[in-house]
Amino acid sequence: TTETLGQIFDKKQEADQLVTTLEQSIKDVKKSYNGQDSVMSVIVSGGDIGFSAPMSGRVFGPMYDLFDWKPALEVKQKSGNDQGDEVSVEAIAQSNPDWLLVLDRDAPLGNAEGAVPAQDVIDRAPALQKTKAIKDDNIVYAPKDTYLNESIQTYSEFFTDIAKALEK
Question: Is the pLDDT of residue 77 over 80?
Answer without folding.
Answer: no
